[in-house]
Amino acid sequence: MRQLKKLLLVLTPMGAAALFGGGGTHDSFAELANWTPATKSEDAAPQSSFRNAKRVLIAAMLIGVAGYVGFGGTFANFQAETGNNGNSISSGTLTMSNTVNGGTACFSYNAVSADNVNGGCNAPFAITNVAPGTWQTTQVAKIVVQNTGSIDAAKLYLYASEISGKLSATGGLTQGSPVSSLSIASPGMEGTVANGDSITVSYNGKSQNFVVNGTVTAAANSNGGATTIPVTTQNANFTYPAGSTVTDTSGNTATTNTDCFDTRTSTNFNFNSISASTTQQAYNPFCGAVLMWVQELTGGKTYCWFGKGSTYSTGSTPSLTEDSNGRCVAPIANVVGGSGISGTITSIPVPAGLTGNVSSGDSIVVAQGSTTQTFTASAAAPVGSTAIPVNSLAVSGSFTGNAVGATLTDTTATGLLDSNATTDTITNFDTGHHQSAGRVELYPIASNGQLDTAATHASELANSGTRTFYVGVYLPKPGGQNQNGLQGLASTFGLTWHMDQ
Amino acid sequence: MRRHSKTWQLKKVLLSMLVVGGLSMFTIAGTFASLNSESSNAHGTIQSGTLTLGNKVGTASACFSYTAATNDNAGCDALFTSSTLQYPGGAAYTAHVTVSNTGSIAGSNLALYMPSCNGSGVTASPGAPSPGGGNPCAAGGLQLTIAETDSSFANPSCVFPNFGGACVVAANTLAFMATKKDTAHLYSLNEGLAVGQTRYYTISLQLPSTAANSLQGEEAVFDLTWLLSQ
Asked: What pTM was estimated for this model as a whole?
């Protein structure tokens, strides 16, 4: 529009000159420009007088047009001006990190999928050779979630990961090309993908929905790990590169389609079916047997978000916890610290901090080699405590500390979990708390066992803020039950931490 | 007129964009959350171990618990057959049994039980012309001993009916073991089996020298089960 205006402005004096001067007085605009007022002798004839008037009028018109359009500001008598230049506006950031057991932080912002969603953070567990009722230090993981951005997160959620995977190195999609199958990178899809499921491929803010069209073959001896997903053919709406996220949004609604899936690691058995167990949960029996808890310890305050000790186990709305102090029934996984224990003691040192909760009266078994001794807790010692107070007792022999320290087990806690073998399972976490329903909103903890759920509560994870969680898993040993159906199995599962502005 | 038409068209385009923008704002607001961030701890695994038992009689092939549908294989080889008849004061039957933990979890308790011992009304084969009608599984019947040995089945140390040293052959011992009939009535060998560990046993049976005539031509048919518990 501005260019058009400029053109018109240039044409206006030329057109006017042509209109008024075209009578033969001036042959060109240059000639007109060179015109000077006539002398008196030249004005003798009446025709000449008319021509002069015409010239004056043309000149006045040109000056007027030029003055109006082009030079109005140049010849103002007085002027004043200020300029607010160099303005800038920059956005803030909302990113998070996720650190497992003090390892390398995993950031949301540098995922291959380029969408501030990092589905590849460290696994909290890689536990092998678990027996019912036993406890290993690897069965609890400390996860620190931090807001590494510059904007406070109003909401922080925890929920079961969706069934998902990544496009393989050769599985990228090309915009406009037909897609009839999705190739998934190893280790394949986490969870069971079924015919008819809705699949979303996403990358850097772009996404496309597909529908599974055909039988999806899981990994050998497994209910998950599919690396090829047949879909109803459609053209890709974008060029999705390798590493793009593939999500099955139909999952986590039943035991047959949870993110948690079972794999038979002992394939020579004929009593450990993972799809038709007759003695345990029929599908994914190990996912349905392993108990989980999520204990928070932030700013010295405790809250049990899932597991025995929390009503989140069966509901999606926080209310009074099973434990008014906000402590899950969480077995400890520690060794005796310091120089060990000997003589008569009233406290067992655990300088590294307890990874579970000890209640007053709990039986604490100290074991080293074939030597064991049982102490009784004289007071509660919540997660993070650096010592367990015990009733005064002489140590039979001695137990060493630190790296080769004697192991500590709270057999009261494990016993409580043995009798609570069906509620707080990984399966129930997945089906009760997933992306589209039952997300666990991690409200700020007001005090031990009490949340700040007021509408005006503070941000759930302020920028630079951290929240610390202990996640544990335990295979219970319910009395009188044969659990041979759980031998030689492995469950694979994920947890998702999500922040909203 | 043309200019007016162009303006109208421009207005139409702008109005359309306004409508689309408004609709997207109100109808799919959830899809475009202002800012969010997410991280997942994927592929956590927890894997169970195994507790399985191997059982080999003599030099036969090993029999494994896990080949049965409940990890309870009742089809392993028999210890004894009736190919040689027993008589009071005669030599004892002996059988060598090798028991191994073939799983990945230690078994803390190795125990025995006898689901059945049937000697009533069972006639030996080849049968005596006139069975006595007694019961070798009952009191006064067969005498049972079990000793743990080294891998050559030498240097026995008794585990039944007494613990340690040589086994004391005693009356009513098969009858006693027959009372250990299920998992609620186990006979513990007071030892476990570590992962990969093997134990060797010699099992002996004999008629007491004082056996009654009622045991003539009778047969004891029994099952003996080895149970390894976590």
From this structure: 0.80
